Amino acid sequence: MPTKDKELVTDKLAYPLGLAISADKAIAYVCAGNNDIVRVNLKGAPDPKSVVQGIGTAHTIALDGQGHAYTPVFDGSVVYKSDLTTGNKSVFISNLPGSRGVAMSPAKDAVYVLSVSGVLSQFDTSGKLVKTFDKATGGQYHSVTVGIEGFAYVVKEYHEIVRIDLSNDTRTTLADGFSTLYDLALDGGGSLYAPDADTGVLWRITLKTGAKEKAAEGLGTTHGMATDGNDAYVTDEGGKLYRVPGSIKPLPPAEIPATLTGPQQAATGSPVEFTATVENKGPNPANDVTLKGAFDAHIKNVEIASVTPHGGATYGTAKQGNSFEQPLKLPVNSGAEIKITGTTDAQYEGNVTDTVSVVTVGVINTSKTPTAKVVTSVQKILAPPAITEPKDGAVLTDPRQPVKGTVAEADQVTLTDRGKDLGPAHLTGTTWSYTPGQDWAVGSHEIKAVAHKGGRVSAAATLHFTAPDPNLVVTQKLLGHWQKSSGHYIYSFELTIAASKHRIDKGWTVSFAVDKGVILDPDWAKGFTWHIAKDGSDGTVVIQNVDLTKTIDPGTPLNIDIQLLCPGQSTSYENLRNLTGHEGL
Question: Order of strands, edge to edge, in the sheet holding 403-406?
Answer without folding.
Answer: 386-389, 403-406, 431-434, 426-428
